[in-house]
Amino acid sequence: MPCVDAWAASDDDDAGDDSREDDCVQHVSDADVERRKHHNAGYLEGLEEGKAETIQSGFNEGFLDGGKAGFAYGQLKGAARALRIFGGRVSGSETWAATIKDSEEYFTKTTTVRALKAAHAESLDDEVRDFTNALSAVQTAVESTGVVLRKYPEGSSSTA
Q1: 10, 53, 134, 138: which has the highest count of C-beta atoms within 10 A?
Q2: Which DSSP helix (H) or strand (E) runs through 9?
Q3: Residue 23 backbone dihedrals phi, psi, to 5 degrees
Q4: d(Cα 134, Cα 145) in Å, to the nearest integer?
Q5: What is the rounded CA–CA span in Å between residue 118 and residue 75?
Q6: H helices of 9-147, where?
Q7: What does pTM read for this prediction?
């Protein structure tokens, strides 16, 4: 859009044409700078607001998934250790002591951090089920001894 000097005496007046062009260029530049400032400010504000919403919902979901995975892992690890300790000391426990041996080996090889990383990998890829399969095998072994496992307390998370 061309800059027009409304106070110019006539179009034929050559006096001051250079200053009018400089003013026009300066005016357009200032307007351009202001437009860019407002555009950038609006973009950054929208970006921050979008991040806040997305990050919070992602955190809530991940927190709940991590809680469930940690609960299952910790419960099974504790049950397997307890069964190993009592195996052979209680009459009739020889059969379940042998059953739980493989489960105890899984927990010896897999730290809590590795287990939670495996659970996280499963949450990212539907094809990967190493953590779930390993815990299912341990759960089957533990429950075959008569131990009753608790379910994750749904709705107890403050982020749900």
Answers
A1: 138
A2: none
A3: -60, -40
A4: 17
A5: 17
A6: 17-86, 94-109, 112-124, 130-143
A7: 0.60
